[in-house]
Amino acid sequence: MTKNTRMTKQRKAILRVLKNTESHPTADWIYEQVKKEIPNISLGTVYRNLNVLSELGKIQILDYGSTYSRYDGNPKNHYHFRCEKCGRVYDIHIDLFDDINKIVNEKTAFQVNEHRLEFTGLCPICQNEN
Ligand SMILES: [Zn+2]
Ligand SMILES: [Zn+2]
Questions:
Q1: Where is mean pLDDT largest: 6-10, 26-30, 114-118?
Q2: Same structural domain, 83 and 67
Q3: N or C: at which end does the chain have fewer Cβ atoms within 10 angstroms?
Q4: What ligand is nearest to the CA atom of residue 118?
């Protein structure tokens, strides 16, 4: 296998854009930002590099089924809140990962490695509009 895991200029630029936002953007948004720095980059290249960065464990791909994938510059396990009204995705800063894994490990016959949990509802901005 000769997969290219080198941090190319393009890959670095994509990673920098993603690390500098907490908005969990789509590939299209990332593409628009990176284009300011590398005008001749293509959307396909952005997608390809996002997949490689995910495989390298440097970013996370958040897959919401039918809607667009969103990308997260924080590769560590953390919870997300998705607003049902505006679609924004927020980080939830509570650390329950180890606790929940431990509970399931102790109470069931399964050996847990990871779990996924997503919160949905109304974000503070949308609550204020109501
Ligand atoms: Zn909202
Ligand atoms: Zn996040």
A1: 26-30
A2: no
A3: N
A4: 2
Express each pLDDT in 7-28 by its tens digit: 799 999 999 999 999 999 999 9
Give the residue carrying structure tokens 């809140």: 81
Asked whether residue 56 falls in the same domain as residue 17, the answer is yes
pTM across the whole model: 0.81
CA of 85 to the centre of ligand 1 (A): 5
Ion ligand 1, residue ranges at CB < 5 A: 83, 85-86, 123, 126
Give the torsion through C-alpha atoms of 62, 64, 65, 71, to 10 deg: -30
Domain residues for the domain of 38 are 3-72
Can you read off the two tokens belonging to residue 25? 């953007």
